[in-house]
Design goal:
By secondary structure, the protein is mainly alpha-helical. The chain has one domain. The protein contains 7 helices and 2 strands; from the N terminus they run H-H-H-E-E-H-H-H-H. Strands 1-2 form a two-stranded antiparallel ribbon. Helix 2 (26-40) packs antiparallel against helix 7, helix 4 (74-87) packs antiparallel against helix 5 (93-107) and helix 5 packs antiparallel against helix 7 (128-152). The protein is globular, with a radius of gyration of 19 Å.
Length: 153
């Protein structure tokens, strides 16, 4: 199936170049963008704060009042927004937004904490950091694969 015909507004996602050779497909473009955004464009501030929350409202109206709820740290929104910018070059706008939201949720650690608890993965010791990093990356890449499969069906 030629994705250029099916998704003409997705930055010319054809499978062949002018010489008839295969070019990057949708998943490969999304995967490369993910790696670039997650490893090259993510700065220290984003990496340290994207899984944190800030109280809202930040200043209570009355003494003794706590925040109404917690919202993701601005670093999480910035990092997911960077992902969204590149995803808009690969996916239709609605899929790019869905993938960026899933990126935000994964980086907030909800799915990974649940999975590590459910599957009893290691959470301490020398390998715990590697398990967490690879769990995060595999979850992001799986979302990209699912999004691609939905589009090309």
């Amino acid at each position: 199936m030629d994705s250029t015909r099916q998704y003409p507004n997705c930055c010319n996602l054809g499978y062949t170049d002018d010489k008839g050779e295969r070019t990057l497909d949708i998943f490969e473009k999304a995967f490369v963008w993910h790696l670039f955004a997650d490893w090259i464009l993510q700065n220290d501030w984003q990496a340290r704060n994207k899984a944190n929350y800030v109280p809202y409202p930040s200043k209570p109206k009355h003494d003794g009042d706590g925040p109404l709820f917690l919202i993701p740290h601005p670093a999480a929104w910035v990092h997911s927004g960077i992902h969204l910018l590149g995803l808009l070059l690969v996916f239709p706008w609605w899929m790019a937004i869905l993938v960026a939201i899933s990126h935000l949720l994964i980086d907030l650690r909800f799915p990974l904490v649940w999975w590590r608890t459910f599957y009893r993965q290691t959470t301490s010791g020398d390998v715990a950091l590697h398990v967490a990093i690879w769990g995060d990356q595999v979850t992001h890449i799986t979302i990209l694969a699912i999004a691609t499969l939905i589009l090309v069906r």
